[in-house]
Amino acid sequence: MSRAVRWLPLAPATALMLLFLAGPVAYCAYLAFTDTQLTGQASASFTGFANFRRAFADDGFRNAVVLTLVFTVLSSIVGQNSLGLALAALMRRASKPVRTLTGTVVIAAWVLPEIVAGFLLYVFFNRRGTLNALLDWLHLPQQNWLFTLPILAVSFANVWRGTAFSMLVYSAALAGIPQDVTEAAEVDGASGLRRWWHITLPMIRRSIGTNLMLNTLQTLSVFGLIWAMTRGGPGNRSQTLPVFMYDQAFLKSLIGYGTAVALLLLLVGAVFSTVYLRLMREET
Questions:
Q1: Predicted confidence band of residue 203 (pLDDT cuts 50, 70, 90)
Q2: CATH number assigned to the domain comprising residue 171
Q3: Torsion angle defined by CA atoms of residues 147, 152, 158 and 163, in that order, rounded to the nearest 10 degrees
Q4: 25 domain residue, yes or no
Q5: Is residue 124 part of a domain?
Q6: Quick one: which of 1, 121, 181, 230 has the fewest CB in 10 Å?
Q7: What's the total number of domains in the chain?
Q8: Which residues constitute the domain of residue 102?
Q9: Over residues 205-234, mean pLDDT
Q10: CA distances from 96 to 86, 111, 163 (A)
Q11: How many Cα atoms are found within 13 Å in the side-chain-facing hemisphere of 5?
Q12: Considering all CA atoms of the chain, what is the largest pairwise distance in Å, rounded to the nearest integer?
């Protein structure tokens, strides 16, 4: 009886999770095994693993998987993580006005709605946009960035928008390092690079793992930013899995197939989470 009483306060949260998370996921899992279409269909029929077999045989799906991994590695694992850590470290040594200005600019990009950030970066990378205007002023070569390098353009846009989260995580982690530890290493003759590598990074490794996992999961689901900038184009050269899923489910009306792609995207996120959690567990 006492155990039931202890779990009673969790009952409302558990019920909400089952209603708004487990319920939709279960319904999507059901749709993925059917030939449900958005229009022109009287009733759906069970098709087993046909949608999943179709996905693995689809060149468009395989292209979306590769682009999703490229987008995630460039903009999350390398871009946001590295830049956020660098900004957090530099801001610790900067003056208060510099910290205030930098924090305001970086966080302003983060709080913008994704679709607004997408349109702003579209204007920046457009053929007649801000970047080419700057290159023209510097007498440097120009190009249509959204056509020639679309996946790099949207990756940069995601870095610009999402770095603030990493910066805040690492700022809190660095502030938690005891000052006497770094001072003792400095007295022992350790250089700045050695202190950073052997003391700072090991002491914030849990924060690094947590930040990588959260950033990766967020990046895997980015849709509005890419849709506003390129709509997955030109062709399918920036069509990540969320964009491919939307195209199949809502533009081509293949709800069953699009939902199967969504479940595979969920599986990719689960794989990344498992890897990060295992690495963090091994470090403890």
A1: confident
A2: 1.10.3720.10
A3: -150
A4: no
A5: yes
A6: 1
A7: 1
A8: 46-283
A9: 90
A10: 17, 22, 20
A11: 2
A12: 78
